[in-house]
Amino acid sequence: MIFVKLVLLSRSDQSFTVSPIIFAWFIKFSIFNIYTMLRLFMGSKLVRLGRYDYLILRLLFLKPSTPYEIYLGIFNIYRGLSHVYASNVYQFVSRLESLGFIRCIHPCPVKSRSLFEITKQGSDALSSYLEIDSRSNLLFPITRAG
User: Fold this and answer.
1) Nearest CA to 66 among 146, 137, 145, 142?
2) The overall pTM is greater than 0.70
3) Core-most of 48, 93, 138, 140, by most CB within 10 Å?
């Protein structure tokens, strides 16, 4: 198996090797994290995803998950940025909790690092934004009136 050698930019000039598959997944998730972060900071609503977001999800994961799983995945990625954007994540988490979309199942002194689960109300709210096209199995946003 061919290995890709990555040189760490450190004072000790240490290096390590990873397989091409792991390296490819690392690149994919890095791009996905940056893209997701930009989408979440650009949006003013809960989590508004456009058609291209779902195409990227399909590209990364080959087949889109259910709205519930996509929501949890994006929420966890967003929450994972809390060491950099603690105040933004705290506001995001607090907003979802106040709307009744999520509930805390394992409290933590740092609220953005607590464990949450999505409620039925949250799942229903998310599903109301989405429509599954049975022909292509892609998810598309539904435009809400008002």
Assistant:
1) 137
2) no
3) 93
